[in-house]
Amino acid sequence: MPGQELSPNVEEYMEEIYRLSTEGEASVSTGDLADRLGVRAPSVTEMLGSLAEKGLVDYGPYRGAVLTDLGYREGRRLVEKHRLVERLLTDVIGLDWSEVHDEACELEHAISDELEEKIREALENPETCPHGKPVKGRMDDVSLDEVEPGGYGIVTSVSDGDPELLQELKALGVVPGAEVEVVRRLDNGETVLRVDGTRVLLNPPASGAVRVEPANPPEPG
């Protein structure tokens, strides 16, 4: 099923199901999808039934939705296009990384596969979007919340849906490539983090938005 046969609304669903399934469990719950898209659960249930009829997901009440092989390929294609457009908007247009997600959501539906390849060539095949997520494939990383106190990691990516959160993380230096150490977690859920040698404090939404590649602690010197 070529991507252009899907409506923009269906494409948005496929993108989010793909993102959720590659960030955690393969089965995506109705509630999680509703929260991510900002819609009511009954609307999600109705759409998942439609996607199942199209052969894009396997879905049943109380067991969530799992992408079929076709759905996985379609979701990956759409997410790759979105991330490529984000890179275009930052590298060529000059938008801040906190501004590009919503713009890319609007533009991605109008870009043909042929134009996508031209953009990719013009940008010299970028490996990641501005937020550190791979344009193609996926990374073997974990949520910062999964790193125990005393653990180290390299920031691979951050969630791109909240502009204010992106500005906050940028100001704290929590950006792709930063070396971080989880110092401790406070009773209120906040995380004390050492970022390239500087201590910062992250609230739960911020720490949950960061993904890292676990790393060994630096050599003493």
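The record above closes out task 2.4. Task 2.5 opens with a second protein, given below.
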Amino acid sequence: MTVISFVKENKEVIAANGANLRFKALENGIDIYTFMGKMTNCGGYGQCGTCVIEVLEGMENLSQKTEVEKRKLRKKPDSYRLACQTLVNGSVSIQTKPRQT
């Protein structure tokens, strides 16, 4: 079991190793989408890029970036991930809806 800490929401979620970050967030009432993201998200297939999160701690406990993430996030900081493409394998601290440039 692993702990996902959602910093902005001040909430911790318990997850099994290999759990999908987007699914665990939504399952626990964590809002990962901006207003526009709520209307345009692709449902977790990595096509829209609206489920961007920032990893504050525990990057080493996440799956490697997928090719989709590398393409969608190429101009973003290395700490940014797409929640729908990220699998959790250990404790991690997450910032939802990071300020995007």
